[in-house]
Specification:
With about 170 residues, the protein is α/β, with parallel strands linked by helices. About 20% of the residues lie in helices and about 25% in strands. The longest helix is centred in the first third of the chain and has 10 residues.
């Protein structure tokens, strides 16, 4: 989970809100650790205060470490949820009423949010893990690239080049 503030409005990115050790070991993680690995840096009162001021949620994809059951239960059903088009129906089917798929780009609170492609891996893992997106959030002052669970590949490189970033290895 990441909280962003854009012109005084709060955007929550990929909320996983469950307490430490709430979920079983994630498949293909090559460890035996329950998830989340750590507690949130907020107590329950602070978490509820944060949720009360959230204007929108931005989801890169629907894996449990980005959109868990606790977040789905805690967030208001009418909160704006920005997501990749492939996930819109699933989110709506879970009771959320203000689901906005980001096919290419949209303006939110004066910021341009552009969806970009990402990949969980290469080969068979890509088919197993499904579609994942990243987003570039641009304001007059700055740009932020949110890469949603991706490996390095040509689309990530192109996004960074488009942003004018210098790539160093």
């Amino acid at each position: 989970m990441q909280q962003l503030t854009i012109d005084g409005k709060t955007l929550l990115v990929d909320p996983m809100l469950a307490p430490k050790d709430s979920y079983d070991v994630f498949p293909f993680s090559n460890n035996e650790l329950r998830n989340p690995l750590v507690d949130l840096p907020l107590d329950n009162e602070q978490l509820h205060a944060l949720i009360a001021k959230v204007e929108a949620v931005l989801l890169t994809h629907l894996h449990i470490d980005h959109w868990d059951l606790v977040a789905q239960q805690m967030l208001p059903k009418d909160i704006m949820i920005l997501c990749q088009p492939v996930d819109a129906h699933t989110i709506s089917a879970s009771g959320f009423t203000n689901v906005i798929p980001v096919a290419d780009e949209l303006i939110w609170n004066g910021a341009l949010i552009s969806r970009v492609n990402c990949k969980h891996g290469v080969g068979a893992i890509t088919d197993l893990t499904g579609v994942v997106s990243g987003y570039v959030i641009s304001t007059k002052e700055e740009r932020l690239y949110i890469a949603g669970d991706t490996v390095w590949y040509e689309d990530v490189e192109q996004t960074l080049e488009d942003l004018g970033q210098r790539i160093l290895f």
